[in-house]
């Protein structure tokens, strides 16, 4: 079997296994424990993080637009499994706690995570999200980032290209980063490539975040090998580079 075919076959098996694991996972409990898990990693207490969760729930300007756009995507019948969008709140809380200024994300599609990161930036009152996705666009009559509310769009810069080709140059131009988020190609060599490329461009105290970390042990191993404190909430891994100050 050719190496790429073998990799695709392994990826298909991992994805199927993840589907089964997700059915067993208690997402309600994961969400309830979110603040405690994140507090072990972030420079904020569980009480402060729960306050950001409440703030997110009350963010009417965000939820009104977001719900309308989700409905448009569902009506067009082009996104059948959008359950992972629940992870957006984790990213919102992380971005509020870190008061992120510079964020890079790979894998935009409809932009659920972009919308949440940008909403936090709006509430922070600053920041830019650089987002990478392949040339082309999402399925249906939509552009990349359709879910992003208009009021956040001026903080968003889309870079089209394969992350393998554009990520390093982008990081060199815009870094150091407060947060890097992987959500593009989840085959292990690509995930590892993105983690390794991003790690050297994170600020002390910055966060390496990744979606779909339950596909394999890669995120846990990578954060452990590189001395990052980490936790997983639902399907998102959060790993923090040690801060230069001992205070947090
Ligand atoms: C799971 S979706 C991203 C979902 C998105 N983060 C959200 O919040 O809804 C994966 C995206 O990664 C993009 N992608 C896949 N391989 C890529 C690569 N090598 N470089 C850049 N983007 C890639 C796909 O085009 C797709 O839009």
TrEMBL record:
Q: Which domain of life is it from?
A: Archaea
Mention any Pfam family matching this sequence: Methyltransf_24
Q: Keywords of this protein's UniProt record, alphabetized?
A: Methyltransferase, Transferase
Record keyword Lyase present: no
Matches recorded under Gene3D superfamilies:
Vaccinia Virus protein VP39
Among InterPro entries, the record links this protein to: SAM-dependent_MTases_sf
Q: Which GO terms describe its molecular function?
A: methyltransferase activity
User: Which Enzyme Commission number(s) are on file for it?
Assistant: 2.1.1.-
For the biological process aspect of GO, one term held by this record is:
methylation
Q: What protein name is recorded for this chain?
A: Class I SAM-dependent methyltransferase
């Amino acid at each position: 079997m050719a190496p790429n075919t073998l990799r695709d076959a392994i990826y298909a098996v991992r994805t199927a296994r993840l589907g089964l694991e997700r059915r067993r996972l208690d997402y309600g409990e994961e969400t309830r424990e979110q603040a405690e898990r994140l507090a072990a990693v972030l420079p904020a207490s569980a009480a402060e993080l729960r306050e950001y969760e409440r703030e997110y729930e009350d963010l009417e300007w965000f939820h009104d637009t977001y719900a309308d756009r989700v409905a448009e995507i569902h009506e067009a019948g082009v996104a059948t499994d959008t359950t992972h969008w629940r992870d957006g709140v984790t990213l919102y809380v992380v971005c509020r706690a870190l008061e992120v200024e510079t964020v890079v994300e790979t894998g935009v599609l409809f932009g659920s995570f972009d919308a949440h990161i940008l909403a936090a930036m709006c509430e922070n009152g600053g920041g830019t999200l650089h987002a990478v996705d392949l040339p082309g666009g999402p399925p249906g009559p939509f552009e990349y980032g359709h879910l992003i509310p208009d009021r956040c769009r001026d903080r968003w810069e889309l870079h089209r290209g394969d992350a393998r080709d554009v990520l390093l140059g982008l990081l060199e131009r815009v870094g150091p980063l407060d947060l890097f988020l992987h959500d593009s190609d989840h085959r292990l060599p690509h995930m590892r490539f993105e983690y390794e490329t991003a790690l050297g461009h994170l600020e002390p105290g910055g966060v390496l975040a990744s979606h779909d970390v339950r596909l394999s042990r890669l995120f846990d191993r990578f954060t452990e090998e590189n001395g990052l404190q980490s936790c997983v909430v639902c399907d998102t891994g959060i790993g923090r580079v040690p801060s230069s100050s001992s205070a947090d």
